[in-house]
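User: quick one, fold this
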Amino acid sequence: MLDPTDVRTLFDACPDVVYFTKDRHGRYTAGNRTLLQRLGLDDENGLIGKDPRELFPAPLGASYWAQDRRVLASGQPLLDELERHLFPNHAHGWCLTRKLPLREGGREGGRVVGLIGISRDLPKTPHASGVAQRMRAVIDHVHANHGETLRIAALAGMARLSVAQFERQFVRVMQLTPRAWVTSVRLDAAMRALEEGDDSVAAIAQACGFADQSAFARTFRKHVGLTPTAYRASRQ
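Assistant:
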């Protein structure tokens, strides 16, 4: 069985994956090279013993901290959570995160003593392949029309695929379901609008394709970690 050092060495070879472990207080006990690079750290000495609020810019740090506390308090895993992350050039992008509780002695039902997790980057555009080329028109259409009603059946038709085929192939190419990816595009547009303009939250919700302001606020808080209003204030 691999020990934690071996696991970290394995993930050091994966530049699109962040790997970490934390203690029961949510403080880092290990992290791979990708995590250190994205935080601008030379080695783990600047990581170990700190929690995300001390290392990541707001609102990311507070969001990760709250997420950790839920896993540690409940003992329940977090599986494939779509969330914002810090990329190598310090730009923001999307990733899928998994966090699992670590239990004393490795026993099921044992006391939670920490957590282990990975965050995997999601591609912004499909890699060159026959399947990916079919998706390009869909991706361009969603980016250009994210404020409109976007039905999965219609997107599948653009790719000349059945809905089932489209969903399978989309996940293979983009590593995310079509619905979740459309949500990420809409949230990206909403964040730009909140940062760069002065339109009301309700107007931004409508322009970005959300059913109403309440649905927008719930979705935004779930994936970004702040309400739209708080996010705007944090970026001023």
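User: anything notable?
Assistant: The chain has a mean pLDDT of 89.
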